Amino acid sequence: MNAILENIGLIGIVPVIAIEYADDAEPLAEALTEGGLPCAEVTFRTRAGREAIARIAKSHPSLLLGAGTVLAVDQVRAAVDAGAKFIVSPGLNRKVVEYCLANDVPVTPGVLTPSEIEVALEYGLGVVKFFPAEAGGGLAYLKAISAPYRSLRFIPTGGIDETNLLAYLKFPKVHACGGSWMVKPEMITNHQFEDIKRITAAAVAAMLGFSLKHVGINGSGVEESLALGVKLGDMLHMKVEERPGAMFVGGQFEITKAPSRGVHGHLAIGTNFILRAIAHLARRGVDILPETKAEKDGRLATVYLNLEIGGFAVHLLQN
Prior knowledge:
The chain is of the alpha/beta class. It folds into two domains: 3-207, Aldolase class I (TIM Barrel, Alpha-Beta Barrel); 211-318, 2,3-Dihydroxybiphenyl 1,2-Dioxygenase, domain 1 (Roll), CATH 3.10.180. The protein has helices spanning 3-11, 25-35, 49-59, 73-82, 94-102, 114-122, 138-146, 165-169, 185-189, 193-208, 222-236, 274-283; strands at residues 13-17, 39-43, 64-68, 86-89, 107-111, 127-130, 153-156, 177-179, 211-217, 240-242, 246-249, 253-256, 265-271, 294-296, 299-309, 312-318. The strands form two sheets. It has an eight-stranded parallel β-sheet with strand order 7-6-5-4-3-2-1-8, with helices on both faces. Helix 2 (25-35) packs parallel to helix 10. It is elongated. It starts with a helix and ends with a strand.
């Protein structure tokens, strides 16, 4: 898959933006970035669309910037010249798709029917836009029409918001979701950039779903681990279970039978999407320890972060 499309999948949410005034472009890009979504699909619905793309491309070069509502080849040229890195169209416009493919421009055309999906497959596309998502039948319809097409991934857009975002993202064939609830046009016009930042951060938090799964406590040996486990379980009226490397108390505490990572132990943090969580944390300067990766059923299940908090190592767990 194209690297830009891969990055869209790792970001997970694509803010769809209609900017009426180009002067709002830079503060909007800053709000999205600080909120945790360094990505934007700026639509060509407004006269300020092209200039807004050019301004964001200059002021925030690390933001993954695309052009949306692209209806013609001349708009593709204008968008790319302005700095857009990918193209999104509401429907499957053959001329737009062919031009993008011929010029190595990532494109996600809109589809809603099996016939349109099969045209996309004829072009060799791996990711398409599912539009209008909710009005077109929602997640149930997407699951039905996508069933015969195992390799294709979708970016549902249209009617996506905080109430249904997670349900869409948890469907394995959904690559990412597009939405405008974080960046409503009136919020941009009224310069509510702090609100946009707050709503964006809330969307990222809902997507990743970070939660404390258990606390690991380093034991110095089998006898100490057993004793501490029994004591803690008796005190908290929790079930104590012995496993090969540790004692588990109520599922919330793990007492290792030998010293492990972290001065005192570790914190296990669950997440809905471990690969997206890794990418999100990396953008904030927190890397992983690759040698600690562990898979389950061929997918990454857990990995330690390259940091300690109060003497506790931290590792991510796929929920």
